[in-house]
Design a protein that fits this description.
This protein is of the alpha+beta class. It has one domain: Double Stranded RNA Binding Domain. It is 41% helix and 37% strand. It has a 3-stranded antiparallel sheet with strand order 1-2-3, covered by helices on one side. The protein starts with a helix and ends with a helix.
């Protein structure tokens, strides 16, 4: 299900300091007819997850997944 990692990250952050800890930066590359999106999920202003895909929402979900994995490994 698309967006489940974004939701999981938000749920985790609600229990660990608030969802304001997470921000996203986006960039678009590739041709206009075939864009490639890169999303960087920052936690406390530090990059913790990156996702790249031709669908912006999928890229954000991938970045959220990687950020959540980092948080769980480093914050418990």
């Amino acid at each position: 299900m698309l967006g489940r990692n974004v939701t999981a990250l938000n749920n985790y952050l609600q229990d660990h300091g608030g969802t304001a800890r997470a921000t996203y930066n986006e960039s678009q590359g590739g041709a206009n007819h075939a864009p490639i999106w890169t999303m960087v999920c920052k936690i406390d202003q530090q990059p913790r997850g990156t996702g790249t895909h031709n669908n912006k929402s999928v890229a954000k979900d991938e970045a959220s997944k990687r950020a959540l994995e980092w948080l769980m490994a480093n914050e418990g």
